[in-house]
């Protein structure tokens, strides 16, 4: 279910189950830099309330929990708020449900939905073959609540399945150590994670250094090496793009009026792209005689982040 404002604030005090997957690099949409910047208050957590996939997951959560109850006959309690580990206050858990008697749960219960695009990341029902980010999330919750197992009920490509994950001491030790190191060495210390090529890293750097001056720094030997490497990469990309364009034209010449080519390495097609239609909202508003001040009132300017632009010598 959607988190309350209190839960959202509480999440800033530690690492939750979705955070640890991002810290470990298992989330393709959110990385360690995003987590660090959110916990430090540099950027606001992404508002996913309008995301249709998130909305569908929230709607389906009680349905999945009810399906689990009917399929197993087990007693299920809905998750209640955010819980922290008694000795690790930064180790947080917001579970979807708990299995067992009230006050004495036997295990954790998580509910997930996934489209057909993720189907190959799920194994047979009854196993622990689930996407790595979910496996780590379940392990994080078991460690936080000191429970021996976690069942994951999932709707994958319109099919219900129940997966069973036993507590794994080696995995648990590794992720708890990684979480502790990240929280103490980076979040509490105010030291960002090592720079990488992620969008999150770029956004954090833009948040840390939003303004610019006219001062140009002299490169150190280490930075000089990075500049040279970037120049070489750009030159290689330029050569590869030129070669790619030439090859595409040669293939188009071979295809002619046909649709494409079948080769041992795959298929190449030459087709027309779909026409893109856009609404010219300002022109439409003017045609309806909407006053210019009203158009201006509903116009929003998005901030533009700083970008690296190399200018190399010939």
Descriptive tags:
314 residues, two-stranded antiparallel sheet, 9 strands, Lambda Exonuclease, Chain A, alpha+beta
Provide structural commentary.
The chain has 314 residues and is of the alpha+beta class. It has two domains: 202 residues, Lambda Exonuclease, Chain A (Alpha-Beta Complex), CATH 3.90.320; 53 residues. Helix content is 43%, strand content 13%. The chain contains ten helices and nine strands. The strands form three sheets. It has a five-stranded mixed β-sheet with strand order 1-4-5-6-7. Helix 5 links the parallel strand 5 and strand 6. The longest helix is centred in the C-terminal third of the chain and has 35 residues. It is globular. The termini are far apart. The model has no long low-confidence stretch (mean pLDDT 88).
Kindly report the oligomeric state of this protein. single chain
Please give the CATH architecture of the largest domain: Alpha-Beta Complex
Principal-axes geometry comes out as globular
Q: What's the number of helices?
A: 10
What Rg do the Cα atoms give? Answer: 25 Å
Number of strands: 9
- The helix/strand order is HHHHEEEEEHEEHHHEEHH
Percentage of residues assigned to helices: 40-55%
Question: What's the rounded overall pLDDT mean?
Answer: 88
Weakly predicted, low-confidence segments: none
Which structural class is indicated by helix and strand composition? alpha+beta
